[in-house]
Amino acid sequence: MLAVIGGSGLTQLANLEVTRREVVRTPFGEPSGALTFGCIGCQDVVFLARHGYGHTIPPHQVNYRANLWALARVAGAAGIVSVGSVGGIRADLKPGMLATPNQILDYTWGRNVTFHEGNGAQVTHIDFTEPYDSELRQQLLAAAQRAGETLLDGGVYAATQGPRLETAAEVNRLERDGADMVGMTGMPEASLARELGVPYATICVVTNWAAGRGDSRNTIIFAKIEEVLQASLSRVRRIIGHLCEAGDRV
Ligand code: HPA
Fold first, then answer.
1. Contact 2, 244 (CB under 8 A)
2. 165 CB within 6 A, ligand 1
């Protein structure tokens, strides 16, 4: 079973043949919405819209623990592909590009970051040297190639708190820190997946130049973000479609 977490704009997978929807509860509360089960080709898929089906949950209020628990432990996902929008910092990450990052810088705060707390739970550390699963990333890159879509290989994803966008000075700092792209939802999603031992990789849609860059030098226009997002999501769906049809079952 492959899980897909849809980000802004991706509240459903058009190529998913839906078989059922299920509202699930977890020890960590309620996920962002019902799980949508179905298949793409012969691949069983479970889909969840990260911000809810009506896009009502902001990045800092997403119940990441419930989402990951529901997909991994209730639905039994063996791999998770998440989709998120980002601002481009690196010069080649221009609006409309797709990338699968290989590293993370985490600037989020106040989010529930571990399953291992409370009720006498043992303190548990995870190795997070490579935050994304390299095999799943390679499968995504191969799927993109078969789909004829350009998916940039690697890059450092900076996770910010949101929901506001960054200042130009903050983006300068992110760049000095080594960030190539900036989004609001990549953490703690990735580390929670690691805690559960489920391979996790991300497709990032560059929807805008990060603050102070390119044509975002003075202001970021939200209508343009939306336009780029809508134009890009069909490409994301095609990549996921090819991933599912690859035969290497997740
Ligand atoms: N910053 C943070 N998150 C984002 C951006 C951005 O510029 N664009 C899309 N998600």
1. yes
2. yes
Indicate if ligand 1 lies below 6 Å from the C-beta of 207.
Answer: yes
Distances (CA, A) of 154 to 62, 124, 135, 211: 25, 28, 13, 21
| 39 CA to centre of ligand 1 in angstroms | 31
Spatial contact of 187 and 68, defined as CB atoms under 8 Å apart: no
* Residues paired with residue 176 on neighbouring β-strands, in sequence order: none
SS (HEC) of 3-41: EEEECCCCCCCCCCEEEEEECCCECCECCCCCEEEEEEC
pTM: 0.96
Domains of the chain: total: 1
Q: Which CATH number characterizes residue 167's domain?
A: 3.40.50.1580
Residue range of the domain that includes 91: 2-246
Evaluate the CA torsion angle 216, 221, 222, 224 in order and state its sign: negative
Residue 208 CA to ligand 1 center (angstroms) comes to: 7
Give strand pairing partners of 206: 86
Closest protein CA for atom 6 of ligand 1:
87
H helix or E strand, kind and range, residue 198:
none
> What Å distances lie between residue 56 and 1, 110, 158, 167, 229, CA to CA?
27, 19, 23, 24, 17
The b/e string for 2-36 (b: 16+ C-beta within 10 A; e otherwise) is bbbbbbbbbbebebbeeeeeeebebebeebbbbbb
Using a pLDDT cut of 70, give the percent of the chain over it.
98
Ligand 1 site, residue 181, Cβ cutoff 6 A: no
182 lines ligand 1 (CB under 6 A): yes
Which tens digits make up the pLDDT trace of 76-122? 999 999 999 999 999 999 999 999 999 999 999 999 999 999 888 99
